[in-house]
Amino acid sequence: MTTPTLPARLVAGCGYLGHRVAASWHGQGYETHAITRSIDRAAAFRAEGLHPVQLDLADPKSDSLPEADVVLWAVGFDRDAGIPRERVWLDGLQWLTEHLSVAPRRFIYVSSTSVYGEGDRELVDESTATNPVTEGGLCCVKAEHLLRELCAKRHPETQVVVLRLAGIYGPDRLLRRVTDLQQQNPLPGDPDHWLNLIHVDDAVRMVNFAANAATVPDVINVVNQHTLTRQQYYTALAELVSAPPPVFQPANEVDATDQQRRRSRGGNKRVASAFREQFDVGFEFDNVATGLRDAVMRTSAPS
Fold first, then answer.
1. Alpha helices by DSSP H, the chain
2. Domain assignments of the chain as residue spans, ordered by start
3. What is the pLDDT of residues 246-257, one digit of tens each?
4. Which of 114, 153, 188, 285 could form a disulfide with 258 if both were Cys (CB 3.0 to 4.6 A apart)?
C-alpha cells in the first residue's frame, strides 16, 4: 500500500524555535520548506532533509514561494544586522503573505506576551486588551493586525493563529550567563518581579497543536502554568549549576538600559492562558524547575 503524501509546510524564521519546529515537521513526514538568507544554512538544512528557500525577508528578490498547507512565521530580530525591525516584521511579513502561491489552511504567527504591556503584578490572559509599551510589543501588535487584514483580503479561507509566547528558555538559552551566577555578578532587575516563561520544547508542542488540531483558537498565550519570580528562577538555576545564591543589583543602581531590558522582557505581570482550560496540549515542563534541569543537562557548553 502506498503511504499518502502529507501536505507541505513552510517555516519563515528558522532560529531557536523555528528550526526545531521544522525538524519536528520533517520527522512527522511533512515536506518542510525553510526560509534562510544564508548559503551555509541552506546547505545544512538540505543535509537535514529540509527544503531550503534562500531568501532575505528584509530584501526579497524571489517572485514566488512553495505551496504550503501550513505556514509558520517565527522570525526574530537581529540587532546586529542594522536593519529596522519593521522592515522584516512588517514589510517582510507583507511580502511573504502576498507571494504565497496558494492559500494555506493555517498561518501561525509567533508573537509575544509583550503585547500586553508592563503590568503591575496583575493576571492577564487572551481576553486582556493589548497595551504594548516597547518597540517589540508595538511591532508585534501591528504585525498581528497586518497579517489578519492581508489574509482576509487575499486568503479568506486561511485561519490566522497568533501564538503569544512568553520568554523562551531551554538548552543553550538560560536567560543569563551561568558565569554571572558563579562569579556572583549582581543581576539587574527586581528579584520579586514575575518571569513568564515557556520551555522551547513545549513551544514546539504548541506550534504542532496549532498546525494539526481540528479546532484551534485564533489567539493563544504560550506560557507555563506556574509563574515564578526572578528570585525563584535564578535560585533554582544557581542550585543546578552549583553556584552561590543569586545576588541582585540594588534598585537605585539599575540604569535606564537595564530598566528598558526589563520592560522588553514583559514587565511585572502574570500571563496565563484561558485556552489551557479547554484543551490539553501536554506540556512537559510546566514546572520551570524541571525545565531548567533539562535545559542545563542539554546545554552543549558552559554559557
1. 18-27, 39-47, 85-86, 93-98, 135-154, 178-182, 200-212, 230-240, 256-264, 288-298
2. 9-169+198-224
3. 999 987 665 554
4. 188
